[in-house]
Every structure is written in C-alpha cells, then in structure tokens.
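User: Quick one: structure for sequence A, then sequence B.

Assistant: Sequence A:
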Amino acid sequence: MKRLNYLIFMFMMVSPAFLSAQTATVGSKVGPVKICDPSNEPVELPYLGKKNLLIFYVDPDKANQNKEFRENLEKNQIESDNIYSFGVVNLKDAPLLPNAIVRAMIRKKVKQTGAAIYTDPDYMLRDGWNLGDVNDMFVLIFVNKDKEIEFLSKGELSQNQIDEFYRVINKYK
C-alpha cells in the first residue's frame, strides 16, 4: 500500500511538470487542426502552411481583455498579402453563454465587418497545438508559413509584448 501511495504521489508531482513542458511556446511547430465555422460546421484551420497566420483566440467571458490593443488594430489594420488574420472564439471556456447565441453574434459581426471568425467548441485548437490553460484569456498567436509559432501571448499584453508583436508582424509585411 505504501508503494502504491508513493507511486500516486510521484505521478501527481511529475504530471504538472511534464504537462507544462509540453505546452506550446515560441518556436513550437504546429499541425493542422479542425475548428468550426460560425454555423458550427467543421473546417480545417485556414491557410496553415500557405500563409503566415495571425490568430486571435478569445474566451468570450473575457471579450474586453486587451481592448485598447484590439481597437488600435481595428483602426490600423495590418495590410499584407503575406498575413491572414482571423478570430477563433473559445466556446468551451464560456459555459454560461449559450453557443447558439455566441454563434449568432459571430455571424452578425462577420456580416457587418467581413472579418473571418471561427469557433472552437471543444478545445480543438487548444489541444491540437498544446496551448495549455486558455480559460479567461485573450490569446494572440502568430504562426509563420513553416508552421512555427513566432509569437504567443495569453492574457493581458504588456508593452514589451506589444512591441514584440509588432516586430514580428513587420518582419512579414
């Protein structure tokens, strides 16, 4: 019994370290994943390996996180044929918001702005790319054509992160 308790204890101690070592970081390679369109139809992540991707992975519970940064990007949009940007709404981490209502809001926003917005109802992107904990976070990801993460931020952006974001973006404009 002592041995079993020891093994369970060791597993509990090693597991978090192992899992955190597996979490994506800048330099991590990513592969294809499916997400859903605003009508909840599965689609492949667009342009992976064909264009540089700027992905806004947002928990709708924290829609106002980085509001000033997002508003600045809306006013000063990144104009480049080399960069495809889109949003993915993390529906799984917003259990109190009915998915049908969020999807209706997304369809309205797409119609108004022409923005490309997808959904992730079951952590398809989070788990497919080993993003780790993304609950209550605005996640900003830049993936180059070689499928390598060049920028990754979760939560509130610091000024240093904003500067680094623009450095990476300007490299690919």
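Sequence B:
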Amino acid sequence: MEEMTNQKLFLHMDQTIAGELFEQTTYPWEILPLIKDFILEAGPKLPKEEYDQVEEDIWIAKSAAIAKTATICGPAIIGPDTEVRPGAFIRGNALIGAGCVVGNSTEIKNDILFNCVQVPHYNYVGDSILGYKSHMGAGSITSNVKSDKTNVVIKNGDEKIETGRKKIGAILGDYVEVGCGTILNPGSVVGRHTNIYPLSMVRGYIKPESIYKRAGEIAEKY
C-alpha cells in the first residue's frame, strides 16, 4: 500500500492550502470526510485583501474569474486566478486551488483540486482529489458510487484495500493526464506523471509514469 500513500502520490503538497490534511493522514481517501470542516475553519482565516466572502461559507479569491451562470454552493474556497466557466456547478465541500479551470457544465462535489488543475469540459468530479497540474480531458468523469452501493474497495493486483467509505471517486497524483471520454471507476488511484488513453475505463491502482491504454495493457512511460 505504500505506493498509494499521500507522500508517494503528491510531491507538491505545498500546492494546496490543505497541505496539513495530507501530512496528518496516510492515504488520500482518509481526507475526503475532512474537507468540509477544513473549509469552514480555513475560510474565515483567508487574507481579506485576497479573498471575498461572497456568501455564507463561500470564499472566492478576488483574482478569480467566475462566470455569471456558474452555480456555487458552500462550503467552498476558490483560489487566485482560477477560472470557473459558464454552467459550472460547484455543489459544496469544494476546495479549488490557484490557477485552476473548472469548465462549462463541469460539476465539482467534495473535492480537493490542487493548484493548476484543469477540469475544463463536461466533467463530473465527485469525492476525489486531483493532484498538482493534473488534467481531465473533455467528457471524462469520476464514478464515485458502486452499482451495488457497497463500500469502495481499492484493488492493486491481488491486494484489496477496504476503505470503509461508500463514496470515493478518483485520486489523481501530480501531472496525471486523463484522456477524453474516460470513466474513472470508484476508488481509481492513478500515480504521478501517468497518461490515460481516451475512452478508457479505469479501475484500481495505476502505477506512476505509466501509459494506460486499456485494462491489461499498461506501458512504462520512460
């Protein structure tokens, strides 16, 4: 399980204001139930010269560009120079870093997006953590609940990790590229610098510096 620890997946913990959550926990899915309380505690402490509290439990950086037709529900923090495009739906418990793009018709719910993350076109990202400079191509989504509604089990070969959580989307390490039209099944964990081919169906753990072509066909990147 060591390869799925916060330390292995995220080398840039300074690229999120929630870095302390990653230092206090071992595995990223342990952070998901902590997001709401972290936002509620951190929001009032944000520098007022940099952030506006636009509604109850919603803090938006003054330099962020928010489309008039975007819907933002709290608790939420949206960082500096982030762009939230028309029709975006931020459902709450959303910690969105600096320099991010949340695109048209993209839905965000109970997530941490590190700085410079892009989910720019028709994405659903629920109960997920997206590492520094990760990117989800158009129409790629996270599936965060199993069809039988049982707790999510993360698989790494023959190893099965009981998470005790009903809802886990995807964990993307730093610099992950997800191709268009991809489905990340509940509990997908993708290591740093990995590329996922378009129209893929991903489940379980994908090691870092890989090229995921399809189930059973994963090449080393370097």
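Residues 35-42 form the longest helix (8 residues). The chain has one domain: 2-220.

User: Thanks, that's what I needed.
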